[in-house]
Amino acid sequence: MTPQRRAGRGGRREAACRSAANAVCLGGPCHGLLTRVDQDLGLVRVPVPNDTGPDDTGPRGTVTAEYLVTRERVHQPGQSGPLLALHWAGVPVRVCRGGGP
Questions:
Q1: Are 81 and 70 in contact, with CB atoms under 8 Å apart?
Q2: Is residue 101 part of a domain?
Q3: Which residues contact 25 (CB under 8 A, 6 or more apart)?
Q4: pLDDT grade, residue 47 (50/70/90)?
Q5: What average pLDDT does this structure show over 14-39?
Q6: Is 100 part of any domain?
Q7: How far apart are the first and last CA of the chain?
Q8: Across residues 26-52, what is the average pLDDT?
Q9: What pLDDT band is residue 8 in, cutting at 50, 70 and 90?
Q10: Element holding 20 (H helix, E strand)
């Protein structure tokens, strides 16, 4: 899963990212984030944007939020077709990198 951009922002680089997106996060910390998923149903973890890690000292991207992939499709301005709706499944989850607890 690769976060692409938040809906409603402009720019050439972001426009290129939009074309690769096939899903939009609804609710939770990633609300409005366009992303790409390669599964039909189930849970996916989306990196929370602007996360700075524990106590604002750790590496970015260490917090993810779980979203439920649904069969629901939504229309997003600037997109050529409907997007998968990803519904927030609960609270953000901290991910340990490097295999440690």
A1: no
A2: no
A3: 31, 32, 33, 35, 46, 65, 67, 86, 88
A4: confident
A5: 81
A6: no
A7: 23
A8: 87
A9: very low
A10: helix 12-20
Helix then strand count (H, E) for the chain reads 1, 7
Structural domain includes residue 99: no
**Distance separating alpha carbons of residues 69 and 51, to the nearest angstrom:** 23
Mean of per-residue pLDDT scores for the chain: 74
What total of structural domains would you count in the chain? 1
Domain that residue 19 falls in: 2-94
| Six-digit token string for 35 | 């992303």
Domain annotation covers residue 68: yes
Residue 3 and residue 49: Cα distance in Å, rounded? Answer: 8
Note the maximum CA span of the chain.
42
Q: What is the DSSP letter of 55?
A: G
Per-residue pLDDT of 67-100, as tens digits, reads 999 999 998 888 888 999 999 998 666 655 555 4
Could you give the CA distance from residue 53 to residue 49 in angstroms, rounded to a whole number?
11
